[in-house]
Amino acid sequence: MSSLFKKSLVATSLSLLAVQAHSAGFQVSETSVSGLGRAFAGEAAIADNAAVGARNAAALTRFNTTAFSGGLTIIDPEVHADVESASNGAVPKSQLEALGLSTEEKDLAPTEYVPNFHLIQPIDDRLAVGFSAFSNFGLSTEYSKDFAAGVGAGDTALVTMNFNPNIAYKLNDQWSIGAGISAIYADAELNRFAGAGAGTSQLPGTSAASDRVAHLKGDGWGFGWNLGTLWELDENNRFGLTYRSQTDVTLEGDYQGLSSSNQKVDGELELSLPEVIEFSGFHQLNQQIAMHYSAMYVGWDTFKELKATSAQCNDGTSGQCLRKEEGWDNSWRYALGATYTMDDHWAFRAGYAYDESPVSAEKRTLSIPDSDRHWWSLGTTYTANDNLSVDAGFAFLDGDQVEGTEDGFAFSAGGDAYIYGLQLNYLF
Questions:
Q1: CA-CA distance, 376 to 353, in Å (whole number)?
Q2: Could you say which of 3.30.420.10, 2.40.50.140, 2.40.160.60, 1.10.10.10 is the CATH number of the domain covering 3-427?
């Protein structure tokens, strides 16, 4: 397998360009629709519905009756990527286009649907259990098959689901603690195409840009854990601190590419999902207005490499199909929000968040043109009665325009995203 192809393939196998217009790295934040409306500010401390189980297990103790929340978030990205030149500037964009290659991609990230489900059951006035199902990481990209940088683009999809049972205990009137375990299922698929490398010695056996030069598909499970604490200073002021562990997922499936003579072989790919630490605060200023905020640390420095292995592969290292150094950095996300309760039926919220990219400028590539982004969010809750309420939320994500190089291709990329959500909450 050529060095060009080897580097490009793994670079995008799970590091999805679509997330450039969503969350830092390939993290998904949409654990609740009420949280979406405030840019997820204060999520570990507010506990206004059962969705808090996904952010702070300790907050389960705030419920004195069975609580359910279930919702759907729709993520509509507008992501583009343009190749400016190839071969380290020797081949200009016009020459690539004269060869019939696509150099400009628009709307390359498809619309995605992210569900969430949460249930909390108090056992007594101190002990509570809960279960949440949500997604932490994912999204996808779909480039044209004749894209010039096809070996680093193609189409990629990653779907994850976290099944997270929790337990919480109220130590006294002010302090609660909680813990849980996570069973994370991941499913991934990628396809890569020859692009500008068609017919060259780097990609033998290819003749057209749309020739598929690699296919990788697999799924698997990983297991992690989470801890949380809630400090209720009084009824109007509380703070939450949570920790979610790093989780290693082994994807098992099949690989087909030049290094296997285009024969399908069994293989594995290791993926490290980062640890997450979140601190949140909530303050009810008066009967109508509340302020909330969060700071989230994501340990992306564990994402050091992507490596696919198989007993039937040899890319210079026996048993290795693909390997690429990543070297991401740790990142922070800061959010600030407010809630206005108009009356017994309507509440309105707004929020802003700043999301740091874990990818430094010198490591930015066409595969991962990640950038800092700004969230602007609005939301509302309609409370029908003492038991039933409905949340609606909207967020606009503003991603920076960035530039970079990958395997001789100079490019620019950027994008925004529109996120919509609807959620039902019920107290039994």
A1: 7
A2: 2.40.160.60
3-state DSSP: the chain helix, strand, coil percent, rounded to 5? 10, 55, 30
Q: Which of the 8 DSSP states describes residue 263?
A: -
Instruction: For residue 61, give Cα distances in angstroms to 65, 178, 326, 365.
Output: 10, 9, 40, 45
Whether the Cβ atoms of residue 166 and residue 53 lie closer than 8 Å to each other? yes
Could you give the CA distance from residue 262 to residue 206 in angstroms, rounded to a whole number? Answer: 12
CA atoms within 13 Å, Cβ hemisphere of 90: 4
Q: What are phi and psi of 234, to 5 degrees?
A: -160, -170
Task: Report the C-alpha gap between 405 and 222 in whole angstroms.
Answer: 33
Contacts of 147 (CB under 8 A, 6+ apart): 83, 101, 102, 103, 105, 153, 154, 193, 195, 209
Strand-pair category, 112-122 with 67-86: antiparallel
Q: Which residues touch 94 (CB under 8 Å, ≥6 apart)?
A: none
Whether 184 contacts 159, CB under 8 Å: no
Round to whole Å and give the CA distance between 21 and 15: 13
Of 36, 35, 39, 13, nearest in space to 26 by CA: 13
Burial class (CB in 10 A: 0-12, 13-18, 19+), 64: exposed
pLDDT digits (tens, 9 = 90+) for 300-354: 887 777 677 777 777 777 887 767 666 778 989 999 999 999 999 999 999 999 9
What letter does residue 401 receive in the DSSP assignment?
P
Q: What is the DSSP letter of 36?
A: H
Give the CB-side neighbour count of residue 117, counting CA atoms within 13 A.
7
**All structural domains of the chain with their residue ranges:** 3-427
Give CA–CA dist 192/230, Å, rounded.
Answer: 47
User: Phi and psi dihedrals of 302, rounded to 5?
Assistant: -75, -15
Provide the sign of the torsion angle of the four alpha carbons 248, 250, 256, 257, taken in this order: positive
Tokens describing residue 266: 């069994």
Pairwise CA distance, residues 265 & 49, whole Å: 47
50-99 per-position pLDDT tens digit? 999 999 999 999 999 999 999 999 999 888 888 888 887 888 888 888 88
Q: Which two tokens stand for residue 143?
A: 């480039």
